[in-house]
TrEMBL record:
Cyclic nucleotide-binding domain boundaries: 38-147
Protein name (Swiss-Prot/TrEMBL): Cyclic nucleotide-binding domain-containing protein
InterPro entries (UniProt xref): cNMP-bd_dom, cNMP-bd_dom_sf, RmlC-like_jellyroll
Length: 182
């Protein structure tokens, strides 16, 4: 059998890895300082402390990021692309159990999502799917409770979205059905 050996110079390899780490660190700092990002309001010391905990992730279109009914440990900060939030709701119609998807909101650059589970310790009440190629930074829920991160926790709570209740969605569905009947 044919065999090919590669030789890797240890010093060059480590230098390359340091360059890549520095580039990723700079990208993360740029993200934290961006005008469109509400995290830019954090003090410099808190942003510096967050850098090693933010995980950059690239997602393909139609990727399920959050699933309704599952616990989520991450906050997501969208830096590019678009995501759609929706909620599945079951109801009785004509004596049969039916399920319908309700589009709730669209997330774009600068938006945060997934905060419900980390803030409230509950299962996610919605699903989020990518609609295009997406880049997000993820932050684990534990980082919200680290000593000295009160500003982060406050900012996340201030920018947290609201999710309609089942009753509100049923009311919306009823109003749409009534309107369509005309």
């Amino acid at each position: 059998t044919d065999c090919e050996l590669l030789r890797v110079d240890r010093a060059k390899f480590h230098a390359l890895m340091r360059n890549i780490e520095a580039q990723l660190r700079n990208e993360t700092i740029d993200f934290l300082n961006a005008e469109w990002n509400f995290l830019s309001q954090l003090p410099v010391s808190e942003k510096e402390a967050l850098v090693p905990h933010l995980v950059k992730e690239n997602l393909r279109p139609d990727s399920l990021v959050l699933k309704q009914g599952e616990r989520n440990d991450w906050l997501y900060f969208l830096t590019s692309g678009r995501c759609q939030a929706y909620r599945m709701l079951s109801f009785q119609e004509d004596g049969q159990e039916k399920t319908e998807a309700f589009a709730l909101s669209t997330f774009d650059k600068g938006d945060m999502f997934g905060e419900e589970s980390p803030l409230q310790g509950c299962e996610s009440s919605l699903s989020v799917c990518t609609k295009s190629h997406v880049t997000v930074y993820r932050l684990h829920r534990n980082q919200l409770t680290v000593l000295g991160r009160q500003n982060l926790s406050r900012l996340v709570r201030e920018h947290a979205g609201t999710v309609p209740t089942d009753a509100q969605l049923r009311q919306r569905r009823s109003a749409v059905r009534t309107w369509e009947a005309y």
